[in-house]
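User: Once you have settled down, look closely at the record that follows, taking as long as you need, and be ready to discuss the fold:
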Amino acid sequence: QLQLVESGGGLVQPGGSLRLSCAASGFSLDYYTIGWFRQAPGKEREGVVCINSGDGTTNYADSVKGRFTISRDNAKNTVYLQMNSLKPEDTAVYYCSRDGVEWGQGTQVTVSS
């Protein structure tokens, strides 16, 4: 059964860091484009970053460039999102997705002092 499960969210102060995980089951994630998206209250879901299948090239939203890093561990079938220098505007539910079709349940990230 195909499944994506996010974890690692929480409450962090501005300037802090979190690492989100997206664990895949039922398929090998290195054969697919895996993306991180986020949705803040009252706003539309937006793309944060994706990592392409095969060569692992990445594409970041301008708002997170230089602060967030996506990586993939094929042995663990997991994609990570390292988030540094977090800002209050990064507060959102973060989702991972396979090709923008299959979605996890999301994990809440709250950046607040």
Remarks:
- The chain has a mean pLDDT of 96.
- The chain has no helices and eleven strands.
